């Protein structure tokens, strides 16, 4: 069984725009990803650690526990062994109480990548590769969350370019969600159900290419057993 950790925020948690409700697992992009990989013959589990309001490395002045760096190393430790970690964070860095731009968000993600790679996993367990998924840029926010994200559509300018450059520097994998989906016109921030489906399906091939093939895993397991 291969294990993938999705460490993310409300865009991956599956909040339904303009509501406080949540899409079902098979409707959320992590669920679509798991089902798509399974349909291709993989024994895989997608573990969701998605917290509404989570930033990359900054605190929410109104809600505790939204700093993505806090507890990340322990999350990697508790969920290991992992075959891949998918990071999709940054949207909340642009909330109106923060002055951040695309460079700040990308640098925050780089800090998270470092925490994943230095997590205190058990001896012999693999350090998982990291896939950074850049969130789609925000639209002008509307509805109840508009004050919270006022100006976010301007502050996030150049996000995909900043993330791509950071991934090249850090030596991790990159996918631009904005190349296949857009923020919902209902609130300018989150993803509609159709966008979850599109993103999950787009990531199936990307993730499949990053995971070891089951045949190779079986050979490695057999070799390890013979060595014992």
Structural write-up:
The structure is a single chain. The chain is of the alpha/beta class and 228 residues long. It has one domain (2-227): Rossmann fold. It is built from eight helices and five strands, in the order βααβαβαβααβαα. It has helices at 10-13, 29-39, 72-79, 102-117, 152-155, 159-170, 193-210, 214-227, and strands at residues 2-8, 44-50, 84-88, 130-134, 173-176. Strands 2-1-3-4-5 form a five-stranded parallel sheet, with helices on both faces. Helix 2 (29-39) crosses helix 7 (193-210) and helix 4 packs parallel to helix 6 (159-170). The longest helix is centred in the last third of the chain and has 18 residues, at 193-210. The protein is globular. Residues 216-228 have low confidence and may be disordered. Keywords: Hydrolase. This is SGNH/GDSL hydrolase family protein. GO terms for molecular function: hydrolase activity. Residues 9-194 form the SGNH hydrolase-type esterase domain. InterPro entries: SGNH_hydro, SGNH_hydro_sf.
| Spatial gap, N to C terminus | 21 Å
Give the total of domains: 1
Beta-strand content: 5-15%
Number of helices: 8
Per the principal axes of the C-alpha atoms, what is the gross shape? globular
Q: What is the level 1 CATH name?
A: Alpha Beta
Show unreliable segments: 216-228
Largest sheet: 5 strands, parallel
CATH architecture: 3-Layer(aba) Sandwich
What structural class should be given to the helix and strand makeup?
alpha/beta
Give the H and E element order.
Answer: EHHEHEHEHHEHH
Radius of gyration: 18 Å
Give the overall pLDDT as a whole number: 94
Annotated CATH topology: Rossmann fold
Strand order of the largest sheet: 2-1-3-4-5
State the share of residues found in helices, binned by percent: 25-40%
| Structure summary, number of beta strands | 5
- This entry's quaternary arrangement is single chain
Q: In the CATH hierarchy, what is the superfamily? A: SGNH hydrolase
């Amino acid at each position: 069984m291969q294990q993938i950790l999705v460490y993310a925020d409300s865009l991956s948690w599956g909040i339904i725009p303009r509501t406080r409700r949540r899409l079902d697992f098979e409707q959320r992009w992590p669920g679509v990803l798991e089902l798509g990989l399974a349909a291709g013959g993989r024994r895989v589990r997608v573990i969701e650690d998605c917290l509404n309001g989570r930033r990359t490395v900054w605190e929410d002045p109104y809600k505790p526990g939204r700093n993505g760096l806090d507890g990340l190393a322990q999350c990697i430790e508790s969920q290991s062994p992992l075959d891949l970690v998918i990071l999709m964070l940054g949207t909340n860095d642009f909330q109106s109480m923060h002055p951040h731009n695309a460079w700040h968000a990308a640098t925050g993600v780089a800090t998270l990548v470092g925490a994943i790679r230095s997590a205190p996993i058990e001896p012999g367990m693999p350090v998982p590769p990291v896939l950074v998924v850049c969130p789609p840029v925000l639209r002008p926010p509307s509805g109840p969350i508009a004050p919270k994200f006022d100006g976010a559509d301007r502050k996030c300018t150049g996000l995909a370019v900043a993330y791509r450059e950071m991934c090249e520097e850090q030596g991790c994998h990159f996918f631009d969600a904005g190349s296949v989906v857009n923020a919902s016109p209902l609130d300018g921030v989150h993803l509609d159900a159709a966008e979850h489906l599109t993103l999950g399906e787009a990531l199936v091939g990307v993730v499949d290419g990053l995971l070891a093939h089951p045949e190779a895993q079986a050979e490695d397991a057999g070799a390890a057993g013979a060595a014992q």
